[in-house]
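Render this sequence as a predicted structure.
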Amino acid sequence: METKGGDQMPIQIAENIHVFQSTIWQINNPVILNEAANIVIDPCYFPAEIQVMANFVNRKKSFNNYIIFTHSDFDHLVGYRAIKAAKLIAQQEFANVDREAQMLQLREIDQIYQVSRKPAFIFPEPDITFHDQYRIPIKGDELVIFHAPGHTADCVFIISREKKVIFAGDYLSDIEFPFVNFSIGDYCSTLKLAERLVREFGIEFLVPGHGD
């Protein structure tokens, strides 16, 4: 039986920044609605939840639509096809992920929860990749994306300069212990990077991939 998501409402944490949260693993799906670009981060998870989020985004017209993947774990990817005409952005190590392992995990979890995905999930092919940093100028703001390896090789942090928000992917969660699937050394360096970014950008809001 699929978990319902039809009455899901986002939390607004700043002007034009909303966060949808899935009923599984408290996965956060941030949405930024802006005249220059509508941006979705890690669209997920159950089909009904994805559709609510997609309806919310698709009815707001903008010059560009982007989806940013904080990393290549399946639970952060599954809803990308619901956003119309979106360019997909990921760190360049995304290309090296073990896709079959991610697809296997998705099938196992969907089988447990009896989820039917229509259309079927296809592993995404990013339109834009980058090495260390990538910037997206939007009206009244700029998003800055930083490579933040450790949990996986392709993890990123995303910062809204104007709204002073950091979207941290699978780091800094209040409900998960650290999962290190790539490198302990890089994970520790990424924690230091997070500390530096919080200071440099005067961060006031943290949105982890899972949790409050």
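Summary. The chain has three helices and twelve strands. The two ends are 26 Å apart (CA to CA).
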